[in-house]
Amino acid sequence: MAFYNGASVVALLLLVSTAARAAGDGLLLNGNFEYQPSKSQMNGTRVMAENAIPYWKITGFVEYISSGQKQGDMLLTVPEGAHAVRLGNEASIEQQISVTRGMYYSITFSAARTCAQSEKLNVSVAPGPESGELPIQTVYTSSGWDSYAWAFKAKRGLVSLIIHNHGEDDDPACGPLIDSVAIKTLYPPQATQNNMLRNGDFEEGPYMFPNAAWGVMVPPISEDDHSPLPGWMVMSDTKAVKCVDSAHFVVPHGARAVELVSGLETALMQEVRTVPGRSYRLEFSVGDAGDGCVGSMQVKGYAGQGSTTVTYSSQGTGGHTRASLEFAAVADTTRVVFVSSTYITKWDGTLCGPVVDDASLACVSQQQPPARRLLRL
């Protein structure tokens, strides 16, 4: 029988800690940054050694922040747990993840601004060309923290997730706070004969933190194959849509829906193969998420050259109405688009809007073939 002293146990734990995390739904290893760096590797709040934060590699000006810490007159808070990291100029955090080649994954993390500037974050996986720039200058919650999603297709079995702040502020420490980094395997649904829309019920989407009652923001994404909301693209310059779940919101159908929180600045879009001349019917639900969003809501649905406007009077307590649109396809590909034509804010000043859910598209008639002409000899 072998016996191990305390030093051996510590060495074994350190060896295990260098292994890559096998991807599964949930937080990355030390994804909430509760495992702290050693004080000998810190200079005040700044982390000095690249491997000081367990399971993470850092570059640039990175700070380890405790909830309640002050920055000038600002009191820094942490959404979950007691710690987070702050990315200053040209700072990044990186972790290796074991994934399945060819599979799709969504990354969810929480972020908060700490400086009066248009902060952006670059999220990428290496090796591979996949990266995305996430604008975080708009704050969608009263706490100042928002959760964001980004997706990628694994090109190899071992990848490095990198979250980078390219900031160029005069204050090198100026930058966003990052907390609660999680991953989820995506299984993009396919179109069916009954519903030509992929993921029309929005059930497949990013990881949502069980204790987070603010939903997950999906920022602009123009490639549906790499969307954390499979099948759908978010068309905007800087604004996002919000994924909401039935655990924290009122959802018209199933467990998830999408809240259009940015008015005319953001559209939800999907391209569908159609046959010119055939008639199709688009159906969808419009309502409110039961999150205190009160007012007259309007959602415009577009398909081909057809459109419909759905008005819903929200009391902020939940409810929905069903809408439909029939149209004739004029091309081999038809865009289905949902956009909110109203801007609504809640009592605390945060953006909100109508919920869209349970969207379906089906062919209702086929183009008749031309009549045969009889030739007389």
UniProtKB/TrEMBL annotation:
Top-rank lineage group of the source organism: Eukaryota
SUPFAM superfamilies in UniProt: Galactose-binding domain-like (SSF49785)
Main localization, broad class: secreted
Name recorded for this polypeptide: DUF642 domain-containing protein
Subcellular location: Secreted, Cell wall
Keywords tagged on the record: Cell wall, Glycoprotein, Secreted, Signal
First and last residue of the signal peptide: 1-22
A Pfam family the protein falls into: DUF642
Lineage of the organism: Eukaryota, Viridiplantae, Streptophyta, Embryophyta, Tracheophyta
Start and end residues of each DUF642 domain: 26-184, 196-359
